[in-house]
Write a structure and sequence with these properties.
The protein is α+β, with helices and mostly antiparallel strands. Helix content is 36%, strand content 18%.
Length: 736
Amino acid sequence: MTVLVTVLPHKAPLPGSTLIQIPIVEALETEWATDVHLQAFTLPDRPVRLTKKEGHDKANPTTQALFFDLDGPDHQADDDWKWYQIETLGENDRDLYFKSAWYHTAHGVRFVWTLDRPVSISEHKILMRVIEARLIKIGLKPDDKCYGWTHIFRAPFVVRDRVAQDLPANFENLTDLCVDDLLRDAPPPKEKVKEKDPSPFAGIGELKPIVTQSIDRTFPVSSRNSSITKLAGRFRYFGHSEEEIRAFLLILNQSRCNPPLDDLEVERIASSISGHAPNMELEGTEPPETPPPIFLERLDEATLAEYLTTHIKGDRDQDIVSDAGSIWRYNNQTGIWDQIDKESGQVEIMGFSGRLQMVDSKGKVQPLNVSAKTTHAVWELANALKRDPGWLSGGTPGVATSNGFLTDDGLLPHDPSHRATWSIPFSVEDTDHPELWLRSLKEMNLSDEAINLLGEFIGACIMGTAPKYQTALLMLGEGSNGKSVVMDILCGKDGVDGLFPSSVVTSIAPQELDSEYRRANLVGSRLNLVAELSDKQIDASDKLKAVISGDLIDARPIREAPFSFRPQAGHIFAANTPPAGKDSSPGFWRRWRVITFSRTFTEAEADRDRASKILRSERGAIVAWALRCYRALKARGHYEQIQDPGLHEWKVEAIPVLAWAEELFTGDQAEWTSATALFQDFRRWAMKHNRDGMFTSNAFGRALNRMGIQRKRTKDGWAWQISRDGRREKEARVYQ
């Protein structure tokens, strides 16, 4: 079935017709002579610009296309950001990706999907929610404006401001999605409340003293979102559920917003605010009196920022600090610095609306009316007032526990100068011995050297000093070999917390570290653990080296301002087979240690509850063991290189010259061979085995040098002495 869209010229009419309906692929691929927009919904009898005002919804328009816009922060996006959105979809939801069309826009990326049958406005709304949920699940946030059935979308290849647009696009994969399959994924409709059941608005009248000022008026376009959000926050304060808040906001949206917000936006506000804990249960409790107003000399953004910093600090002796895009506040009860992110900070600012007041020059009381713009500006100013770059990485190495601050020298009392931002909720006794844990590692056929290496690495992550040793750990081995047990011990299993709480664990693959958005997630992380490393090539980028070494790096959350910080996380990656790569420099390989899990447990041997058993009985003992290992690392100053076959296997997979040498150097007899002959042989071998043979002769020579092969100048040019044993001995030293 051909999927049609209505083509709407922006200014000049199209030749022969003002509006036309053509297949969507043709509309997307056409190089238009003017600025053109596409309308997803159509009427069967004629092309027409559909509007609510003209009552076209009563004519039952239908569509077979779903458009989603992903716009960059503040509607600005560079090419890296745009490609990251496309790659994220391709890596995390391959079904959607391989059935989509996409193209870059001025502000971001637009995805298009077609459907296997026409759908109505109501079905379209449900399908948009289903796709939206899948996008949000993988970290992609569609723009709010793309949901309306009357919305139009600019075609990719148009003339805009007299300039022909030619941005990246791909329409080859566009394949119909099955409507019925998508509808099965839709959330079930909410049951109607029976008349005898109590109203979801029971007790809502008790909010009158709090919300009267806000709802006894119409909200203009400029303040619809902020006004609805503030009301949601007040309802949540009194303990109302998400369903109650959503229902009430939808009513207010229709009666008080001119024009109303999209229902999806209202539902998102209700869902977001409901994630905050209520400050008071409404049932059986009288609401408190309206808090007294607080008078400030001025209500400008600078004064509000000063007040916000004082408000967040409260009656604590320790001042707040801003670093890496968040404000940090010391908690005397736990001994750690709590993070106040932008969303939480803006909720605090919204709470100032109406309560903060000033007396103007005429003696009239002027209450504060917080807008979205004010909220953003006040938060940024408050961060600027308390900003202390590098504060996070300047603390005492150690970790907060339930009985004090644990360092490699012993237990200290909690103190804000330690700058602890996380804690382990159990005590640690230095002499404890994790018998079951160590026995399990032995059963995995790990050597004593490998077990000590693992303990040293875990200890460095706990202490927050892992980047000091500039090393990442790769755990290799096919399935059912024990790697998952190690990862469960680190992160938790079956509801039992691991050594590291989820708040300080990230999962960012080496291939993703070139993205400033992904790097932002490393703030506050102590362990970056990737359970299944992609076979995508690992390049020795500057960012990968900087992140592993804890150098100062730049980062930026999506839609936020960039900042700089020093990562504190240690990096553990797990893979069944060695990842691809092409870096042959000793500097790259110095940053890696490899532990191979060689045993394969049979179904009868496997203990599915082993990790849970260990965590329930030996969490504190494992931390004590890891810190004992860490003290040895600290005294030595570096990780020892263990003799693990996985490292050499990885090098052979990653370095074409080394793999070629493995096949060529088969005898012990040394002989001199011309450099030209060796280089030509390598190029032929690379082509035969589909390996990267794009080496210059100079790069090829440097690779042979690293492998310890001797060379000399002859009358015919350079020659190399082939010696397997000599190469092996030298390779083991240089590449490691």
